[in-house]
Structure formats: structure tokens, C-alpha cells
Amino acid sequence: MTTVLDTLAGAATTEAPAPAAPSRRRRDLWTALAVTLPVLIVQAWNITGYPTVSDDEGTYLAQAWSVQHWHGLAPYTYWYDHPPLGWIQIAMLSWLPALFSSPAHLFTAEMRVVMIPVTAACCLLLFVLARRLGLARWAAGLGVLLFGLSPLSVGLQRELFLDNFAVLWMLAALVLAASPRRHLWHHISSGLAAGAAVLSKETMLVALPALVLLLWQRSDRTTRKFSLVGFGSAFALTVAQYPLYALLKNELLPGTGHVSLWGGIAFQLGRAGSGSLLTSGTGSNQTLNSWLYYDHVLIVAGLAAAVAMVASRQLRAVACAVLLFTAVAVRPDAGYLPAMYIIQVLPFLALCIAATAQVLVRTGLHAFPRVGLRPVRWAAVGAVAVLAAGYVVPHWYEGDRTAVTADANAQYDRAVQWIRADIPDPARTRIVVDDAMWLDLVHDGFKPGTGVIWFYKVDLDPAVAHGFPKGWRSLDYIVSTPTLRQDPNSLPTVEQALTHSTVIASFGSGTNLIQIRKIDKSS
Fold this sequence. Notes:
The protein is mainly α. Helix content is 58%, strand content 4%. The chain is built from 24 helices and 5 strands. The protein has a 5-stranded mixed β-sheet. A hairpin with a 6-residue loop joins β4 and β5. α2 runs antiparallel to α6 (115-132), α16 (296-309) crosses α18 and α18 runs antiparallel to α19 (374-405). The chain is globular, with a radius of gyration of 25 Å. It is a multi-pass membrane protein.
């Protein structure tokens, strides 16, 4: 079975392909650019309007601002919830949105412009990886289009999520591991890139066995041990910077009066589980259904293709990455499953589908071996391709159409503009908001940290609560948003501030309602 699949995929030998000739590299370059361009157009179009800004985006953006302006990892106490490399990269790219900024849009939404070069790099790396794994040029291009144009991708890859940066670095690590030249420095660089992926989002550790498998396959037998040691050393030394930072801060282990890396890890591993992925009604199952709502084709077809591609030596590492992420998601004692988890699987799903399509096309062509039947062969392949496109394109069209036309952040834009125009003396005002509009108010003159406050810090950060001796009466305004209203019972000061306040401005309706509320300190 393995031999058949590898032969059909154009990779019958187990040796790495020879370095590409200049003419082949030029054709690859133009093809990669041709398939990346439509992805970038769709991703960039209306990027500030859809999807609705999330609390996570605001958090990472505020932390990136802190790196730039306060030379710290967070505007509040950094408690090791995630490694910081992801938002450090956001800080490094923060100059880009200034070229397109508009006062009519929420700053958090405008900062999404930094994701365009990230997506571009991911598409180009995915194309190179596909070619190095033996996929034909058209199949590699198909993989990029599947990865970038899926409605699921368009929504999630636009957002300022750490997972998108982790995907970029992991794709770079895979490309280096699959280098046809097999240079030791390529394998060491692969370890460095893998370390950067994990420091961007720690859950990318799940894909590490697949990367090691690819490195094992592509390294020369005589120098394999040097490649593995070089890779492992580079990876370990890169990731070790994180605990070393905590150690130097005396925050590696729990202790009185300070946060710790161990405490952050314990929190992440001990978070209340969202239930089984396959049990109806659980949080994980609802997350799965939301993924399938946006695109069931990429998920279902990609998972089936991954199972098939395990039999192909050339694609086994990519298929294993899909299966490893799937196994973690469906494990019996599943913990918390975030909505952005699927981001890390998207490139591998797309590659598996593209590889399977190549196998099916070559199988179809080999079914009519005679030269005289060549038109029949291509007509059959073309008919299957049209049928597949006829099924997929209408589903994707509606999702992508929403992404390029919806204005999901209109209520946020209007709320920030109202605060800017109607709340006097921002430097002396204390206002509680969700993370998404925090940076806008900082730019408008509210004092960061104690003037404009992340809502959950009011109750959960002792350093912040210490500055409010009168509790909710120390606050002036609170902005009620969908995020802030999710679980007020766990935040008593926030709940009391909502109870003892009156609406002075309202934007949107239903679950998207945003209310600016003035706190009545005399009640």
C-alpha cells in the first residue's frame, strides 16, 4: 500500500528530491505567488470589519503595547498564561497598521493588518513544504488555496491569535527539516524554528513528534545522529529561554507574594474541561459544531485524507500531525478546548487533501493507459474536478462573502467614538472595559492600568484591587459588552458595578449589545 501511494504521488523513492533547477524554481515561485495573491485579497478585504473583535485579541495587543512602551510583558502582572514570543512579534509588526489607520475603526481591529504578512509567509512556506514532500505544482497550489480560502481560515487567520504565529514557525521548521540538501545547519535551524513555534503558542508541542519523524526520514543515515542532536539542542536551548526568564525573576516555582511559571502551567492544565468533543451539548462539542458550520469540507475531508496518507511515507509526518491534534482534542479526559485550536491543524488538513487529490488524479489517469484514450482520461479527471468544485465553492462562497461584506465591529467603533467625544477628563476617569477597546482608550488619554482597566483584573489581580479601596464605588464608568457579561458571578466587584450603574449610551442589540454605564456611587 505504501509503495502504491508513494508511486502515485510521484515519490517512489525514499531519497530526498534533488535540488530544483533554476527554471523549476522560477515556475514554482510564480505558481506560489499566483495562489497566494487571491488568498491575501480575500483575507485583507474588510479585515477590520469581520469577525467581531475578541477579548484574546485585545489582550495580546495590549501586551504587545506594553512590550513597546513599558518594556514589560504585560500592562498588568504577567502571570505566565502563555509564552510571550507571540505578542512580541505583534509588537515588532505594529508599525504596519499605521500606514492604513482610520479613526473610524477600533484600533484592535485595525491592528489585524499585521496578520496579512503572516498569512502570506504561511502560504509560501506551505507551498514549498508541499513541493518538498513530492506534491506536483498544481497540488501544492491547491493546498495553499484550501488553507487560505476556507471560510474557517478567513475568519481565524485574520485575528490576532498566537496560534497563527505558531503555525508560521512550525511550517518553517518543517520546510527546513525537509530540505533536499540535508545540511546540518538546516536541521539546527529547524530546531530553532520549532522552538519559536512553541514559544509563540505552547500547544504547538503536539506537532513536535511529526516534525521529528520528518527529520528522521529526510536526514542522511550516516549523519542522522548529528542532525537529531543538532535539532534537539537548538530546540531545547530556544525553549529553555522561557523557564530561564522565570528563574531569573524568581518566578519559576510557586511562592508567597508572586506569580510563577509552574503556577501558570498548572492553571492551563487544570482549567475546567469543556467536555467530550463527541458528546452533544458540551462546550467542546459546540466548538466543533462552530468549526463545522464554517467549513465541514476542510475538516471532514482533511481528517479522512490524513488517515489515508499515513500509508504514504512522503506524507506520513503531515498526516501524523493531523492525527495527533485530533487525538488531543478527543481524548477521554479532554480539558478546555479553545476555538482557535483548529488554526494549528489547518495547514496539515489542506496538505492531506491536496495529496489525496493528487493520488486520485494519477489513479484516474493510470486507469486509461493507452495514448489514444488520453482525452478520455483528462475528461474524466476534469468532470470529477468540476463536481468537487460544484460542491465546495457554493459553501465557501457564502462564508467568504460574509467575511468581505459584514460589519461585525460597528457597535464597538461607535462606542469608542462616543467615549472619546462625551466622557470628559479621561486622565482622571476610571473606566472598566473588556480588552478589545482597552488600547483605544489608552490612546485617548485614559491612564493605562488604573484609569482604563481590564474588567477581570478588578477582582482577580490583587495589585489592581489594592488601588480601589472603595470597591466598585472607586470606579466611574463600566462598559458592558458581550465578553464582560459572560460570567459576572465570578467577578463580584464587576457585578456590583453593573448593578449600581445606569445606561448613558447604547449601541447594537441582542447578544451584541454594548452599553456605556455611569456608576452611581451614592447608591
